[in-house]
Design brief:
GO molecular function: actin binding
Distance between the termini: 65 Å
Organism: Leptonychotes weddellii (Weddell seal)
CATH superfamily of the largest domain: MyTH4 domain
Strand content: 15-25%
Structural class: alpha+beta
InterPro entries: FERM_2 (IPR035963), FERM_central (IPR019748), FERM_domain (IPR000299), MyTH4_dom (IPR000857), MyTH4_dom_sf (IPR038185), PH-like_dom_sf (IPR011993), SH3-like_dom_sf (IPR036028), SH3_domain (IPR001452)
Main location: cytoplasm
Number of helices: 20
Keywords: Actin-binding, Cytoplasm, Repeat, SH3 domain
Length: 676
């Protein structure tokens, strides 16, 4: 029996010649490790000192020559009372328990006992299936080889001939993180790829191609991938991909396909085969570099393809610094064309790396707009009270961007404030309200909703109330006033007294009614009909209309001196002291807990779950937030049109479950409250 411990699985084989197979495999492993500049971590090393290299078990580390000291300094250590300068040591000499290496672009020293020799990683071993890991897995396959920072000076003068790999004097000295550096490490050997690009005569008289040629525009289709890939199916896929790039740029006939068909082909290939994303990026960069196409818009279309690609798929950690450097060089170099779109490509790529990229393929209308150079449009966002905001959204705009933009209008700039606001998508004519993830792409949401419901609305609401209220900004005050006013008029913020309200309650409600009247910029004394609209219905019935009118008259002179903005601010300040201010309310049809009379009202806030009587709004049961272990939402079943929420309470040892049936669909739970 033979047992092989691979990186992600264990393989057991049965063979009569198991000892011979083991000996042969061991010989291969030893040969691969011989003179290798790589080690594999056998334990985690997470030091606090930033000068040391942090890594996890299984990481591949690229050993580097010892870091040169700063000017005027020497690096060394004391061995048997003698100072030994590290600069004087041979590279493969004793390391005194420490090594120096790089991983994912970081460099530093680390203890020798935490690593063991490893074979150099191979770009050919990247997984072909999309489910075998994300971009991080791609980078792990090559470890830090391409992400490593290698000291080099910017090359000046004519191109240097690419010589045999064993001749150090012929190697190119390339700028760090340039696309040429990436090509030098991972592209096929230029001497073996004569099918496209220029050919230069070397000193020996034979034809030679430089790395620059491999990264320059070609008029002929590729016969093999740019990046060295051993899998023949991937190689065929790469050539098909390049042909699609040429067709999109207008350098090859469409052959019955539309531009949208070609774009879908490219995006789907990259979605299904994550390992091909770097190849696609390299192909597009090649075709927009020194573009000499006879088609006048070829280069521009190539940049727009790169813009779209960066919005949907990220590159690997290996390619990322090189691609970003390429885009920054174009966008920041004075006099170069396409500076604006290069900057936009970089922004899309950064968004995709952060939020995962768009999911819904662009509609024909969106694609036509992008090809025409229109990368943004106005989208309506509804704030409480019917306030409208037509905000500019771009290809990669996410919900968080819109939250930040509206918050900026309200003079809120801190991340803690952003976390208290949410964009909701409203469909089915207002019947279905769902909070958007902060990572959700707005155009993806719009496309998905158009396919399902024919359209949607986007609401902006506050859902958490940890931060104190502010009263300086007019939009802030108006938005919050409009959001809390309906809940106040339903009497949800306080309980309804069994008998006559106290004098203090009457004065407070009449003052709030007077402020509402002034908030509408009305200076006259309200009518009895208007007063009825300013007071919760359950409380209005406790007094005659004329009595309420007399109470309001006592506050008329004071509120008359206020502006509408000041009246709203005072209203907010007064009701913020009410017990359930800052809660999100839900109507509960039934509850599995016998202590909760149903139907009832559930108020969710930072203190927990508060079950209120449907008639008096008195507190029936309170469950602190710390007792809630988890929540789970179930959509309506065939037997019921109401969704329900399952809440796990208690601890791991003694856990109980409460099931609530709600009146309307919601993504409920203490962590995601929704307006009632």
């Amino acid at each position: 029996m033979l047992e092989f411990n691979l990186a992600s699985e264990k393989v057991i084989l049965f063979s009569a010649r198991a000892p011979q197979v083991k000996a042969l495999v061991d010989d291969f492993i030893l040969e691969l490790k011989k003179d290798s500049d790589y080690v594999v971590a056998v334990r985690n090393f997470l030091p606090e000192d930033p000068a040391l290299l942090a890594f996890h078990k299984g990481d591949i580390i690229h050993l580097q020559p010892l870091e040169p000291p700063r000017m005027g300094y020497s690096a060394g250590c004391v061995v048997r009372k003698k100072v030994v300068h590290l600069e004087e040591l041979r590279r493969r000499g004793p390391d005194f328990g420490w090594r120096f290496g790089t991983i994912h672009g970081r460099v530093g020293r680390f203890p020798s006992e935490l690593v063991q020799p490893a074979a150099a990683p191979d770009f050919l071993q990247l997984p072909a299936e999309p489910g075998r890991g994300r971009a991080a897995a791609v980078a792990a396959a090559v470890a830090s080889t391409a992400a490593a920072w290698e000291v080099g000076r910017r090359r000046e003068g004519p191109p240097v001939r690419a010589g045999p790999p064993d001749r150090a004097e012929d190697r190119l000295t390339l700028p760090p993180y340039s696309m040429l550096e990436f090509a030098q490490k991972y592209f096929r050997d230029p001497q073996r790829r004569p099918q496209d690009g220029l050919r230069l005569k070397s000193k020996e008289g034979r034809e030679s191609r430089t790395l620059e040629d491999m990264l320059c525009f070609t008029k002929t289709p590729l016969q093999e991938s740019l990046i060295e890939l051993s899998d023949s199916s991937l190689n065929k896929m790469a050539t098909d991909m390049f042909l699609a790039v040429m067709r999109f740029m207008g350098d090859a006939p469409l052959k019955g396909q539309s531009e949208l068909d070609v774009l879908y082909t490219l995006l789907k290939l990259c979605a299904d085969h994550e390992v091909m994303r770097d190849e696609c990026y390299c192909q597009v960069v090649k075709q927009i570099t020194d573009n000499t196409s006879t088609k006048l818009d070829s280069c521009l279309r190539g940049w727009r393809l790169l813009y779209i690609m960066a919005a949907y798929h990220s590159c690997s950690e290996v390619l990322q610094p090189h691609l970003v450097r390429f885009l920054q060089d174009v966008s920041r170099t004075p006099g170069l064309p396409f500076q604006g779109i290069a900057k936009a490509c970089e922004q899309n790529l950064q968004k995709t790396l952060r939020f995962g990229g768009r999911v819904e393929l662009p509609s024909s209308m969106e694609l036509r707009a992008m090809l025409a150079g229109r990368s943004s449009k106005r989208q309506l966002f509804l704030l409480p009270g019917g306030l409208e905001r037509h905000l500019k959204i771009k290809t990669c705009t996410v919900a968080l961007d819109m939250v930040e933009e509206i918050c900026a209008e309200m003079a809120l700039t801190r991340p803690e404030a952003f976390s208290e606001y949410v964009i909701f998508v409203v469909t089915n004519r207002g019947q279905h309200v769902c909070p958007l993830s902060r990572c959700a792409y707005i155009l993806d949401v719009a496309l998905e909703m158009e396919q399902v419901d024919g359209g949607c609305m986007l609401w902006f609401r506050r859902v958490l109330w940890d931060q104190p209220l502010k009263f300086e900004n007019e939009l802030y005050v108006t938005m919050h006033y409009n959001q809390v006013l309906p809940d106040y008029l339903k009497g949800l913020f306080s309980s309804v007294p069994a008998g006559q309200p106290s004098e203090q309650q009457l004065q407070q409600m009449s003052k709030l009614a007077s402020l509402q009247h002034r908030a509408k910029d009305r200076s006259y004394l309200p009518s009895v009909r208007e007063v009825q609209d300013y007071i919760p219905a359950q409380l209005y019935r406790t007094l005659a209309g004329s009595a309420w009118l007399n109470l309001l008259g006592q506050h008329q002179q004071q509120t008359q001196a206020l502006s509408p903005h000041q009246a709203r601010a005072q209203f907010l300040g007064l009701i913020s002291a009410l017990p359930l201010f800052g809660s999100s309310f839900f109507f509960v049809q039934s509850c599995s807990n016998a202590s909760v009379p149903a139907p009832c009202i559930l108020a969710v806030n930072q203190n927990g779950l508060n079950f209120l009587s449907a008639e008096t709004h008195e507190l029936v049961l309170k469950i602190p937030l710390k007792e809630i272990q988890s929540t789970r939402t179930q959509r309506p079943t065939a037997n019921s049109s109401y969704p329900y929420v399952e809440i796990a309470l208690g601890d791991v040892v003694a856990q109980r479950t409460m099931q609530l049936q709600l009146e309307q669909p919601c993504e409920a739970g203490p962590g995601k409250p929704r307006p009632y």
